[in-house]
Amino acid sequence: MTTDMKTKAGTLTGVSVALGAAAVGAWLATRDRKHHPDNAPGWTQRRSFGRYEVVGRTVTIRKERAELFAYWRDFSNLPRFMFNLDRVENRADGRTAWFMQDHGGDIIEVDTEVVKDVQNKLIAWRSVEGSDVDTEGRVTFDDAPGDRGTRVSLIIAYKPRGGAIGKIMSKLFMDDPRTHARHDLKRFKMLMETGEIATSANRPQNTRAAQKQEN
Amino acid sequence: MRALTWHGKHDVRVETVDDPEIVNDRDAIIKVTSTAICGSDLHLYDGVIPAVQSGDILGHEFMGEVVETGSASTLTKGQRVVVPFTIACGGCFHCEIQQYSCCENSNPAEKQDMSAALYGHPMAGLFGYSHLTGGYSGGQAEYVRVPFSDVGPIVVPDSLTDDQVLFLSDILPTGWMGAQNAEIQPDDTVAVWGCGPVGLFAIQSAIAMGAARVIAIDHYPHRLALARGLGAHTVNFRESNLQEALMEMSGGIGLDAVIDAVGMEAHGFAIDNMLDVAKQTVGIGADRAHALRQAILAVRPGGRVSVPGVYGGMVDKFPLGALMEKGLQLRTGQTHVQRYTHDLLKKIENGEIDTTFLISHRLPLEDAAEGYKNFSSKQNEWTKVILKPGMERTAA
């Protein structure tokens, strides 16, 4: 890619320490206990996450952990409920290419690698060098208290930038990744709990799924 | 098909629009045989509910014949069904505990943001009631796409007429839940604000639940007469000092339970209401809560307050002190229709409940706009309007 991406590659080591996928969960999910002795999730903190924007969202779904994990782990299922995700391709080297449609209809490729994969519990991924977007994320699956099903948390960190990539990011997320995370998780819940995604469209060709339209 | 569409305040029209089709596997298409204009449709007509868009098809009280089914629908073609106005998925936590009107999955994801911002949580999907509740096309039409058709619609026997069962879609369960939320005990004296359809059914339900005395409050003589016909005592608030009358009629004790079946567009010239009217008129999202304020003052200490009337925004001068200092219970909510339809259908079949007394007018769907106008402006005589898609028009 461009100079910009090389710069990113140069700092990748540092990023890995701060935000590397193995560490991202801890970094996002725990607070500095000395100063903030509470149990609020890390992504709800009123503080800066440095050069990264962090988005986190949780839903509770009345299904078994294993079933939800298996559906999500098969990445080819994701476009069914992530409406800006056009398709997902598995590469021979184990990496995955995500083809996302931005607001203007252009396709953006994000190459990712799974950096942590704990059966029925956690999937973490991060974009690799050469990808159009610098992002990483994780989804966790936890038993809800009592008989409420499974708590699914999606946490995404991304680096907004100026220049071409900044434009891509803002086009991709319409400056509001929170909206995406929220809608994607709600649709995942609908699909798992009801077998379909609610729509008020009166004809199949008018649904947002058919039009790949997020908002 | 023909359908009643919204175009702005006091502007509804019957137009030709696309027929609906099966979209999801659990859908069914219903050919509407009867549909009603609800008092809460007047909130849309008056433009006090946000997020209604030009061209939206209104109507949430409807019934008809199943004409098409998706692969996962449990209905079969030719069945006669009444459709609850609340859309419920049957699979989420709230549906599991029968809080159907709090369904988490029936409002499309991208439509949930607005009500989540307003109320802290998204609303469920409702037919024909703005994009806050999903933007679903309503039942004042020839055909309706009904999602989750394996959960909501109730099959009705041919031995019962449309007029006998149509109100299972909303107002009968709403009146029933309004009375149930008031936790009526034998020997109770109960007052109901508003003798519109929901108020009248709440009166009927409260009596069926064993209340010793039910007091009906309104200012339309004909509506008060209908309440008397059900066995209620009545007070016309234009003619008597309401608080004093209620205190006297409850022997100086106050009411054991009160039911606000008026909601956000209360009538009256009390100072709080006039301020509310002014705020609503300039569109700052205020509700007119005059009836609810009165009800909270009239209920006895330790009493119960039930609110089936619709509210959508904020209120000022809410008597929170009275609520706390008198130790009141307050219960409200959109109706969990699916929880009640089965039992109420049985009561209709057994002759324990008759709802047909309410119907004042039957019109062809083509005359729906006229129906809205009259239901809104002639509330004394126009107590309930039924629209029938197939009905012949008579010369106007």
From TrEMBL, chain A:
Polar residues composition bias: residue spans: 197-215
Name of the protein: SRPBCC family protein
Family stated for the protein in its record: Belongs to the ribosome association toxin RatA family.
Family matches, as InterPro entries: COQ10_START, ORF3, START-like_dom_sf
UniProt superkingdom: Bacteria
Sequence segments annotated as region (Disordered): 196-215
Domain Coenzyme Q-binding protein COQ10 START per the UniProt entry, residue ranges: 66-176
Automatic annotation (TrEMBL), chain B:
UniProt EC number: 1.1.1.-
Cofactors (names): Zn(2+)
Gene3D superfamilies per the UniProt record, alphabetical: Medium-chain alcohol dehydrogenases, catalytic domain, NAD(P)-binding Rossmann-like Domain
Domain Alcohol dehydrogenase-like C-terminal residues, every copy: 197-265
Domain Alcohol dehydrogenase-like N-terminal intervals: 25-153
A UniProt-annotated Pfam family: ADH_zinc_N
GO molecular function: oxidoreductase activity
Entry keyword set: Metal-binding, Oxidoreductase, Zinc
InterPro entries found in the cross-reference section: ADH-like_C, ADH-like_N, ADH_Zn_CS, GroES-like_sf, NAD(P)-bd_dom_sf
Family: Belongs to the zinc-containing alcohol dehydrogenase family.
Name of the protein: Zinc-dependent alcohol dehydrogenase
The organism of origin for this protein: Croceicoccus esteveae
